[in-house]
């Protein structure tokens, strides 16, 4: 293979990349501050005050805060206002921006263009603002829509502000929306999220009234997703069909270093990456996404961005924008962003941590323990209800984060296992045990200092809990961190499932209080009942797997068995009881996710066929032929009577044979799995028969990577993709 091979060309291109210089926003030659940039493309409160009369604004803000119906007269005023604001910014089109059950966002652009007689004018009507009609049959519906039943509706969600998305080719006004079918069933991820937030509010307000907080009228769910991702140079990605199509490398031998020295985590951010991060943050600020934290993650080539918390539906919108802008801005810097949970074998994969809490309309965080958590009835009540809900419905939380990609992370000493448990920390555990034993607790939540005893350095304020990075549902000061969500997932569905579980936990606590005649006794009883879900140790350990089984906790290792939970009648009853999903809507989500799992494995099987047949085997056979020619010359010259024994690589032909045998086994396994009639059993068959064969093929192919000469190997290697010019 010559020096101008595609792989060498990609290597040279990646090596020579310069840091991208991008235009910073200015005004009159002066750089704009973050305050001036933040939300400039959002039709937020400042714009509402500027464009709407006071009485209209007050009514609209009340609807945003408390709910209620938006009448056509108010919608018309808002439509005129947002149209004038957007067109003044050069916008010519608008779209209803929604979250179908693909996990991505969707949008259909319409021009502001209309006609007044023969005169072309620009206008946005109330009906256009409120509602649009995309094709419902072309999105995943889980059988709720037939191909000939095409009508579906998007409806404006006024609780999430409209924004302008700027692109190189023009700007579009985006109207955050829900998506439902012609007869009303939810076809998206946002509708059940909004319903689950309403369910939590209703149950939490009732509990607060029981606690004596009768002034509370609304409780909101807050969330703050953290997003992990990998960057790879676009030249390398273009030569890897598995990365282009599947988002992960289904072949590839580990690099000599990997993450073994642990020197990437929190290390100095490479200049090229920091330029990308800076431009990404500016784009996020423009659309009102409060990006806060950026850093190198554990694996080489891996990074994280964290966003400040917001109300859950807005946080879900923010995370969708983060993922969209990650992809778009990465392209400007000659990167491709990899959001798959496991882009590379042998190094940590990527997750998405959802920081989850509840707050009432008095501004109080209901999961804030205060300085004396043992005396904080409000906190203890909501802690007990949360733990009880998670305990009762741990299998639902596991199902909510189930995917083919996430199966590679869970339980792999890089992410929580497939067993859902909760971590409280030393002080809260002491408080809980004291309540259960009816003893006074001296535990305090705040005010402790960590004395470093080093001259010139201040004492450190010590948090009430340490962090347990192995726990899937960990208390972290005044919130729970749901750490098991996959990096490419929408946070809407996992958050919905947490909301439903906790809403049921709150309801059960209230029923228990009524039954026992005393709320404090009910809180203690709820904490006692939920003790099996509480675990303070190492969730990665084999000992925990054994212990969890003794406690009766579900351990759903693979996606097919995890998703089967959604098929259970008790889960359908749970969602229906809180008016979040009807049984048919939940069943549709089960079918969609099972089909997605099957398609994901099937795509990887097709990719594997292509890689082996078109890339790996030709290179290996060419290497074998080259060696045979050289060894034949050695025999002819008299250098060796048995050159294969003296100089040959005996492992090469044996590994090629192993690869060919595994490749043939793949066709048989895939054909057998595809022939299973039942959808659930077919998914299990793909997990049982196809995935092990894919691993066998990978093992042989990765061995060949070490046996074939570097100049002849066609695919970019891990050492190049993970370390070259980040």
Layout of secondary structure:
Blueprint: H1 6-15, E1 26-27, E2 30-31, H2 34-37, H3 45-51, H4 54-66, H5 72-87, E3 93-97, E4 109-111, E5 113-116, E6 119-122, H6 126-130, E7 131-132, E8 152-156, E9 163-167, E10 170-181, H7 190-210, E11 219-233, H8 234-238, H9 241-246, H10 271-286, E12 291-296, E13 302-307, E14 310-311, H11 312-332, E15 335-338, E16 351-360, H12 377-392, H13 394-400, H14 404-407, E17 422-423, H15 426-437, E18 449-450, E19 460-461, E20 473-475, E21 480-486, H16 492-516, H17 519-529, H18 542-551, H19 559-563, H20 569-577, H21 583-636, H22 643-646, H23 651-674, H24 679-705, H25 718-723
Helix pairs in contact: 7-16, 10-11, 12-16, 12-17, 13-16, 16-17, 21-23, 21-24, 23-24
Residues in helices, as a percent range? 40-55%
Largest sheet entry: 9 strands, mixed
CATH topology of the largest domain: Creatine Kinase, Chain A, domain 2
Backbone CA Rg? 28 Å
Plain-language structure description:
By secondary structure, the protein is α+β, with helices and mostly antiparallel strands. The chain has two domains: 38-188, Roll (Ubiquitin-like (UB roll)), CATH 3.10.20.70; 195-597, Glutamine synthetase/guanido kinase, catalytic domain (Creatine Kinase, Chain A, domain 2), CATH 3.30.590. The two termini are 27 Å apart. It is built from 25 helices and 21 strands. The strands form five sheets. Strands 11, 12, 13, 14, 15, 16, 17, 20 and 21 form a nine-stranded mixed sheet that branches.
